[in-house]
Amino acid sequence: MLAAGKGERLEPITHTRPKPFVPVLDTPLILRNIRIVKKYVNDVVIVINSNHKEYFKLIEGVSLVEQTEGKGTAAALRAVKKYLERDDEFLVIYGDLLFEEEAVEKIVNTHGEAILATESDDPKKYGVIVKDSENRLVRIVEKPENPPSKLINAGIYKLTYDIFSYIDKIVLSSRGELELTDAVNLIGNKVKVVTYNGIWLDIGRPWDLIEANKVLLDKEKDRNLGVMEENVKIKGKAIIEDGVVIKSGTYIEGPVYIGKNSVIGPNAYIRPYSVIGSNVKVGAFNEIKESVIMENTKIPHLSYVGDSVICEDVNFGAGTITANLRFDEKEVKVNIKNERVGSGRKKLGAIVGAHVRTGINVSILPGVKIGAYAWIYPGAIVDRDVEKGEKFVPYYLRRSSGT
């Protein structure tokens, strides 16, 4: 599993956690994928960088290899060369993917070298696969302006030791990286294209995390292990884990997920596709709609969180509001690596990094990102991205202090 990327497009979520540790239904993505893969392989090796090593050390039953030379997916794979035998067959899986077990089963059961492919309605964002009539690889075209097909590289390969001889032949891409797809292109028609039509998501941008949780929530079955006080209404599917307390007057519309030991209410409104992590407090007169709220966060009272991602250990002051709809009802755009990028969503709220604190009566405009450890002073209207660790002072306080 290639997990050495920095995840800059996912900031501020990745200010405090590696990209593969983004949570889907309160479980780190990489742990979910390891559980699937272990059914089909002898060993799991994760390629990491020097950042966040402590996270990966918590994973049991895997080997960790640090990528110390070069950049890119091919350089990451080369880091494990010395751990492989010449007759080994192995899977290579990108660390930020959401997929079902069927994807791994299909490629494992294919004879020889193979690449997994799936269809996308927007193939120009990915590596597009061109194959011949016998389902053999012709080439992978990276992010073409005019895609030759809707079939894209799904980021799961079955390879042999020969791949390293092809990696030795490739040169740096325009991004200054050694790309695994360039090496696979050199192998050519020896690679079989395995088409997969199940769940697949590349979690590359913050709003992708909302979609990933929605997709898995649709697959889950009802379970309620929590404690319900009187006058709680649950309509539709709800997955409520052990130790949860739902206080009186709370109304829940499924599908909804609530993680272990969280406390909801009294008089809270939890709307469809809300995913609330473990040890979270959603208190009185709060409304949560289609949002991901990570572990240990506190939203005590009188707040609205819509179509947002709220990272771990955030504390919202009373009356903190995430606006999620533009006045003109156009697509919400977000700053991603210094570029204004369309989210594809008409409704998108805030992306709030870990350990953020907001004062009372804070309003956050659609598509705004707030970096980890930031403080937002009372009464602020947050109309721009806030840097990691920044103290955001509202206009009325800046004016009164003469700054």
Give structural notes.
This protein is of the alpha/beta class. The protein folds into two domains: 8-204, Alpha-Beta Complex (Spore Coat Polysaccharide Biosynthesis Protein SpsA, Chain A), CATH 3.90.550; 215-401, UDP N-Acetylglucosamine Acyltransferase, domain 1 (3 Solenoid). It is 15% helix and 30% strand. The chain has eight helices and 38 strands. Strands 13-16-19-22-25-28-32-35 form an eight-stranded parallel sheet. A five-stranded parallel sheet has the order 14-17-20-23-26, with no helix packed on it. Strands 15-18-21-24-27 form a five-stranded parallel sheet, with no helix packed on it. The model has no long low-confidence stretch (mean pLDDT 95). In the N-terminal section; belongs to the N-acetylglucosamine-1-phosphate uridyltransferase family. In the C-terminal section; belongs to the transferase hexapeptide repeat family.
Task: List the SSEs and their pairings.
Layout: E1 23-24, E2 27-28, H1 29-37, E3 45-48, H2 53-56, E4 63-66, H3 73-78, E5 89-93, E6 97-99, H4 101-108, E7 114-119, E8 127-131, E9 137-142, E10 151-160, H5 163-167, H6 180-187, E11 192-195, E12 200-202, H7 206-219, E13 223-224, E14 227-228, E15 233-235, E16 238-240, E17 245-246, E18 251-253, E19 256-258, E20 263-264, E21 269-270, E22 274-276, E23 281-284, E24 287-289, E25 292-293, E26 298-301, E27 304-306, E28 309-310, E29 321-322, E30 333-336, E31 339-342, E32 351-352, E33 357-358, E34 363-364, E35 369-370, E36 375-376, E37 381-382, E38 391-392, H8 395-401
Parallel strand pairs: 3-4, 7-11, 13-16, 14-17, 15-18, 16-19, 17-20, 18-21, 19-22, 20-23, 21-24, 22-25, 23-26, 24-27, 25-28, 28-32, 29-34, 32-35, 33-36, 34-37, 36-38
Antiparallel strand pairs: 1-2, 5-10, 6-12, 7-10, 8-9, 30-31
